[in-house]
Structures are given as structure tokens and as C-alpha cells.
Amino acid sequence: MTIEISAAFDSGNIELVGIEGDRVDLEIRRDAHSDFFQWFHFRVSGAADRTLTFRILNAGKAAYAFGWPGYRARVSTDQVEWPMTDTSYADGVLSFTHRFEGDAAWFAYFAPYSMDRHRATVARIAAMPGVSHRSLGNSLDGQPIDCLRIGDGPKQVWFYARQHPGESMAEWFMEGLLEKLTDPDDAVARALREKVTLHCVPNMNPDGSARGHLRTNAAGVNLNREWHAPTLDRSPEVLAVRDAMDATGVTFAMDVHGDEAIPANFIAGFEGIASWTDAHGAKFYDYGRRLAANTPLFQTERGYEKSAPGRANLSMSTNQLAERFGAVSMTLEMPFKDHDPSPDPVYGWSPDRSKQLAHACLVTLAEVIDTL
């Protein structure tokens, strides 16, 4: 059979350069109107009983090429399980090999979270008792920015994900979060629902998600650099969410992401905002310490450098919300690689463990909510 490479589907991204024997040469397509690229997702068919090596020739020019060493691509034959496959990076080329038992397999930078699954999850959670759903606005392509509200307590909590659409682990995290919050038998969720109103935005960038982008929306805009001055023509997604936050206020906020290089889960805070106080920052640090104590899937030793006093970038949501509302806000980063402190040699960091981390984040929030 002739080998066929396809990325003409939700979140698909790859371009075929050529096939020579058992070697398939590929390139990742850039985000529209942007130089960002790194996310890939494609299907191979007609390869039964063959061992193929795939080479992504432009990997060295990707947005975060320094993240390729130590990375392993994901492969699936059923679009449910996404184990890692043998992968190497040298001379700017990312290579991975797979032995095909059946005709078809899918390959991706991380286990994809499709827009079909997004819509199904929103519908399923919205039908649960005590949940209300609304669209906060529309993306540039006209897709709704879904928000699920849970609980009726006085403190306003926001969880939002996939500002960067290629970071699909963020929406797996949100699915786990929503499932725990709506579990009628979960004591932690029940206590939280009494003390807070939770606003959950599972996907802030549906256009980029559908288009197979790494980091930007349909206009090529990085949404997490728009929070100081979002506009309808560049970043209506951010404008819709920030306007909704202005209406409710924000006590606690978590912006959920993925990191290309650091093989660990960590949080970044709001050091460097003009209104920083040690008392405010102590609440952020306390959350991180408690989360690390609650789960082996989180650690506090690795992470980003802190902003210098007065130098925080207010175009980023975590800094903007801490300054704008006095919120205890943070960016959660999960790895495309694995969580080195508690590795999984088969799946690496995975959808299931993203959901487990979400559960631990809610347990930790319940511990600290009375102090916020």
C-alpha cells in the first residue's frame, strides 16, 4: 500500500516533504500570521507491518527548539491511549521511529484534546446539578468562549486554560477539574462549592486549537500578551474573559499551560507587580508548598525566574489579575516531556496525570481558601 500522511483534521499540523523507502521527511506548519510553530499532529496510513522513521526537518527552527532534547513523541492507534515512542534530536532534526502492526497510527506533540471532546465535555458538565453555562463571547472564527460556573460562595475563583492552543495537557487538566467539582460524593468539592463561586474556561483559544497552532489565535496573536489592552480585532477571547472577571472580581486564579523544556510541574507567580507585598506573595508561596505536600506530581525546586521588583509584564494574565484585583493568581505549567520527580516510562506526562494534578489543585485550594 502507498503510505499516506494527513493532517486535514481538528488540530492537525504537518506538511509532507518526501518519502524515501522507510524514511518520511516532514515539516511543521507555522501558526497563521505568525512565526510560532512546534505543535504537530498527523495520521499515517497504509503502513501495516512496516517500521518507519519520521524526520521533522525544521524542528531546529521551532519556537522552543531548546525543548526537544529529552522529549519523546506520542503515538496512538486508537486515539485513546498515547504512549511515547523512540525519539531523538540532532542537528536540528527531530526523529522518531514506529513499528506499525495495523495500517494506521496518529502522532502528536502531546495527546490531543479535540474540539469535539471540548464540546462534549462542556455539554456533559453543563447538564450536572448546580452548574450553569454561558458563552462569554466569540473568537475571531466565531467559536464560543465557554464558561462553566459552579458553586455559590462569595469568593470568586477562576480557572482558565489553553491560551496557547498547542498546550493540550491544559484542557485535560480542566476536564479533571470539572469532573471533581461536579462529583456529588466528593467532600472537597462540596466544601468548595459552599465557599466559592468557580468560573471555569476550558479553552480560551478554540481557533488556534482547531487550526493546529502552537501558541496563537486566528490572527497570529499570543493571547497571554494581551491582558493589558485586549481588543475585538486582535484578541476578543481575552477581552471577553477579562470583562467577565471585571464583573465578578477575582479572589484566586489559575492560568493552565504546558512548558516545552522543563521536565516538571511548577507554578509561576506575580513577583514584580507594582502593588507587591510580602503578605500577598506569601499566599502564593503557601499554595505551592501545600500542593507539593499533597501530590508527588508537583514540585517547587524547578521553574521560571522571578521578575525583578516593578518589572512584571502586565500583558500576562497572572500579573494583570494580581495587580488588577489583588488576586492570588498563578500560572501552572505542565511538561511536554515527563515529570522527572515521578516519571512514567510508558506515557510520560499524560492526560490521566494532568487530571490527577487538577484534583490535587482543588484539594489544596480547599485548604487555603479561608486565608484568601
TrEMBL record:
<keyword id="KW-0378">Hydrolase</keyword>
<protein>
    <submittedName>
        <fullName>M14-type cytosolic carboxypeptidase</fullName>
    </submittedName>
</protein>
<dbReference type="Pfam" id="PF00246">
    <property type="entry name" value="Peptidase_M14"/>
</dbReference>
<comment type="similarity">
    <text>Belongs to the peptidase M14 family.</text>
</comment>
<dbReference type="Pfam" id="PF18027">
    <property type="entry name" value="Pepdidase_M14_N"/>
</dbReference>
<keyword id="KW-0645">Protease</keyword>
<dbReference type="InterPro" id="IPR000834">
    <property type="entry name" value="Peptidase_M14"/>
</dbReference>
<feature type="domain" description="Peptidase M14">
    <location>
        <begin position="111"/>
        <end position="369"/>
    </location>
</feature>
<keyword id="KW-0121">Carboxypeptidase</keyword>
<dbReference type="InterPro" id="IPR050821">
    <property type="entry name" value="Cytosolic_carboxypeptidase"/>
</dbReference>
<feature type="active site" description="Proton donor/acceptor">
    <location>
        <position position="333"/>
    </location>
</feature>
<dbReference type="GO" id="GO:0004180">
    <property type="term" value="F:carboxypeptidase activity"/>
</dbReference>
<dbReference type="InterPro" id="IPR040626">
    <property type="entry name" value="Pepdidase_M14_N"/>
</dbReference>
